[in-house]
Every structure is written in structure tokens, then in C-alpha cells.
UniProtKB/TrEMBL annotation:
SMART domains: S_TKc. SUPFAM superfamilies: Protein kinase-like (PK-like) (SSF56112). It comes from Trypanosoma equiperdum. One of its GO terms (cellular component) is nucleus. InterPro entries: Kinase-like_dom_sf, Prot_kinase_dom. Residues 1-95 form the Protein kinase domain. This is Protein kinase domain/Protein tyrosine kinase/Kinase-like, putative. Gene3D superfamilies: Transferase(Phosphotransferase) domain 1 (1.10.510.10). GO terms for molecular function: ATP binding; protein kinase activity. Keywords: Kinase, Transferase. It comes from the Eukaryota.
Amino acid sequence: MGTPNYIAPEALSGSDHNAFAADIWSCGVILYVMLAGKLPFEDRNQKSLLEKVKRGEYAMLRQVSEAVRDLVKRMLTVDPQNRITLEGIISHPWFAVGWDPKCLKEAA
């Protein structure tokens, strides 16, 4: 198991899961921290913390744009089948502003 505050809900079950979808979840946690200055899932009791992660129970950001709230919500979707993909993130209105995807391909 990874760091409890960043682990995707499906990784808690111990069964096989899509690592890419789990990484999207963890990146959603990181984005939330960058925007809010605090973790979306916090509790002193680890069992309670993990229950919050399983339920996707966090306070939605208010001081940021609707576009980034939407992106965080999609990244922190509990069901990995419904979670945004990398392609979805790259084409998301909040993420797609101010950079040229062709540059990413050239640098890779």
C-alpha cells in the first residue's frame, strides 16, 4: 500500500487494479494540495482516513475556477471506470490552456 492520503480507493482492496487510473487519482490529490495547501483526505485515525478515501469524501475547493474544480472532481472519482483518463486531462479546458501538445511530443 502507498501513502494513505494519496492511495486510490481501488488500491485499498488488494485486488488487481489499473495502475494508470490509480496514478490519475494520486495526481488529483497532488493537484488539490497545490490549489488548497492541504490534503483532500485527512484524519488522525488511519481507518477513518481510508474510509474517506473509499467514499471519495472531501471538501470541494471553492476559491478556484469552476474548470479546475471540475478537473479535480473527475480525477478524484471513486470508480476508476468513470475516472478521467490522461487523454481527458490533456484535453480538459483547464489543462489545455497555455501550452502546445506538439511540444510535449517533441520533448518526449
